[in-house]
Design goal:
By secondary structure, the protein is mostly helical. The chain has one domain: 3 helical TM bundles of succinate and fumarate reductases, CATH 1.20.1300. The chain has 4 helices and no strands. Helix 1 packs antiparallel against helix 2, helix 1 packs across helix 3 and helix 3 packs antiparallel against helix 4. The longest helix has about 30 residues. It is elongated and about 85 Å long. The N and C termini lie far apart (about 85 Å).
Amino acid sequence: MTEQNTTVQRPLSPHLQVYRLPLLPLMSITHRVTGVALAFGTLVLAWWLAALATGPGAYAVFSAFMMPLGGLALLGWMIAIAYHFCNGIRHLIWDTGHALELESAEKAGIAVLIGWGILSVAMVALALFFWAT
């Protein structure tokens, strides 16, 4: 065996602290997370409807459970549905075979983020308007 007197400078793999995910993978992960959040939100919505149909006692239990963070949960559900909707449209466009090149896919991603912001602000404004009246 030969001995090596010099230290070898090997490149280190990128760590999470220095590696930044590109926009498209971040949007893909967010699409999956919002899908799971919407599934749980839909279960809460079904519970709410069942409590309404069952009577005042069941609705009181639901209200007691949701009272501390119910409005915040509804706000999160609205924002998640806006993102999932906008990104779903992008996926439908991809299914037709359009905007699959990297440059056009990134432009579509930016369009999704802009549309998500506009839709989220509009939904929250409408919710606040109807809540105030």
